[in-house]
Structure formats: structure tokens, C-alpha cells
Design goal:
This protein has about 60 residues and is mostly helical. The chain has one domain. Helix content is about 70%, strand content about 0%. The chain contains three helices and no strands. The termini are far apart. The mean pLDDT is about 85.
């Protein structure tokens, strides 16, 4: 009885393939600086601006 096709010995390129996946994973992740910017709190100036714009918009609708 012969072996099943899935019982074969893995080729040597399997480790190369996993190394390539690891390289892609490292290069495709966001840059640390962009992650830092995402974690920064928003300034109160921008929220004050939004409130002011909303007040203007509400007053123009009335």
C-alpha cells in the first residue's frame, strides 16, 4: 500500500515560504510613527472648532 499524498516529506522551500510570509508581515504593518499619531489625544482646539462650526450651522438652519 502506498503512502497518501499528504504523508509526503515537506520540501525544503517550506521554511523559505514561511520566511517570506514573515517578511511581508513585518513590511506591511504600520510605521511606529503612524501608530503614535493614532494614540495621541485630540487637541481641544479641534473640538472647539467643531463646536463653533456646529453652532454656525444650527443658526443658519433656523
Amino acid at each position: 500500500m502506498s503512502k497518501h499524498i499528504l504523508d509526503r516529506v515537506r520540501a525544503a522551500n517550506a521554511s523559505a515560504r514561511s520566511a517570506q510570509y514573515a517578511r511581508i508581515e513585518v513590511t506591511e504593518r504600520p510605521h511606529p510613527q503612524s501608530k503614535k499619531l493614532q494614540r495621541q489625544s485630540r487637541s481641544t482646539f479641534s473640538t472647539a472648532r467643531v463646536k463653533r462650526f456646529l453652532d454656525i450651522e444650527r443658526s443658519s438652519q433656523n
